[in-house]
TrEMBL record:
Record lineage: Eukaryota, Viridiplantae, Streptophyta, Embryophyta, Tracheophyta
Signal peptide from the UniProt entry: 1-20
Keyword Hydrolase: yes
Name of this protein: Aspartic proteinase PCS1-like
Family membership noted in the UniProt record: Belongs to the peptidase A1 family.
Name of one Pfam family that matches: TAXi_C
Keywords, in A-Z order: Aspartyl protease, Glycoprotein, Hydrolase, Protease, Signal
Gene3D superfamilies associated with the record: Acid Proteases
PROSITE patterns: PEPTIDASE_A1
Residue intervals of the Peptidase A1 domain: 51-356
GO MF, one example: aspartic-type endopeptidase activity
Gene Ontology cellular component annotations, sorted alphabetically: extracellular region
Length: 356
């Protein structure tokens, strides 16, 4: 979920007719994984402005709603507990550690409690109980803090993850947890040794908002068109370049049949982070570098300019807005927006599914 104002981040980027996105973490390819055995997991998810999947946490498993987030590392869930004698978020589904035999709190002397900025947005610390405390901030204002713990995910008798470090949130601004899925060492897929995963987003025309999330093999993978992702050398260090993200080699943008006159150099990542094209499923807007954004905006103004709201800006960043009464007509007037990757393939950027 990190926010960088100078790159494009897409989550409705489709490379096959099945509306599926399949990601492979190259750093995990040599480790034991779900893809190397018959074990796999297929989970439905609910889609609104986020991909919400219910995951079975603990022993016995407790189903907990978590946002599938390819743009962040640490996973955390809402935990039952009290703060200053008051129940945290009453009425919200929360994980109850007392019901799980595999739950364990991490003490202050664990190595993860030594402040490590790359893994946490704020340094970890010791609380009054000598337990490891974490705080995690996101660019959209989301905050979660609590204790670091270890717990297992039990998908079936044949698929039980090892103990995974995650956050047990006692305070947060969200009612759901986060499933961190980037390539960092503390992400869910890294700790569970999963080398591949995919998610299939429902199309715009269907009435069913349910999608599918696969850990391990996806039975539809034979239909996928694969795109190599970018990696960055260790020497390329910058707080604005996210080397843990899934980064695509974007080359251009097409709206309907018109390929926009944007230089491919605009999308080439530099040490500042400008031009980095990230797949961030935990975000809700798409950001473009100025040169690309201005060309996209000019094309949309040309196609449906009279339908746009005049002098209106959403969240201080979005100035291409439409009233709900004309949104459908505006979408038809614009048509599909495509991004062109380094292999020359096109990815369909759905207008009602684009994110940061």
């Amino acid at each position: 979920m990190p926010l960088f104002l100078h790159f494009l981040s897409l989550f409705s980027l489709f490379f096959s007719p099945s509306n599926s996105l399949s990601l492979t973490s190259h750093s995990l390819s040599q480790k034991p994984s779900l893809s190397s055995s018959s074990a796999s997991a297929k989970l439905p998810f609910k889609y609104s402005n986020a991909l919400v999947v219910s995951l079975p946490i603990g022993t016995p498993p407790q189903p907990m709603d978590m946002v599938l987030d390819t743009g962040s590392q640490l996973s955390w869930t809402q935990c039952r507990g009290e703060v200053n004698g008051k129940l945290v978020k009453p009425g919200i589904t929360m994980f109850d550690p007392s019901r799980s035999s595999s739950f364990s709190l991490l003490p202050c002397n664990t190595s993860l409690c030594i402040p490590q900025i790359p893994d946490f947005t704020l340094p970890t610390s010791c609380d009054q109980r000598r337990l490891c405390h974490y705080s995690y901030f996101y660019a959209d204002g989301t905050l979660a803090e609590g204790n670091l713990v270890t717990e297992k995910f039990t998908f079936s008798n044949s698929l039980i993850t090892p103990s995974i470090v995650l956050g047990c949130a006692k305070a947060s601004t969200e009612n759901r947890g986060i499933l961190g899925m980037n390539t960092g060492r503390l992400s869910f897929i890294s700790q569970a040794k999963i080398s591949k995963f995919s998610y299939c987003i429902p199309g715009r025309s269907g009435s069913d908002p349910t999608g599918l999330f696969y850990l391990g093999d996806n039975p539809n993978s034979g239909k996928f068109k694969y795109v190599n992702m970018l990696t960055f050398p260790q020497s390329q260090r910058s707080p604005n370049l996210d080397k843990l993200a899934y980064t695509l080699p974007m080359k251009g943008i097409r709206i309907a049949k018109n390929q926009l006159n944007i230089s491919p150099a605009v999308f080439k990542p530099d040490p500042s982070g400008s031009g980095q094209t990230m797949i961030d499923s935990g975000s809700d807007l798409t950001y473009l570098v100025d040169e690309a954004y201005n060309k996209v905006r000019a094309e949309i103004v040309k196609l449906v300019g009279p339908m746009m709201k005049k002098g209106y800006e959403y969240a201080s960043v979005a100035d291409m807005c439409f009233d709900g009464a004309v949104a459908a007509a505006a979408g038809q007037g614009i048509g599909d927006m495509w991004v062109i990757d380094g292999s020359g393939k096109r990815g369909d950027v759905r207008g009602d599914r684009t994110v940061r």
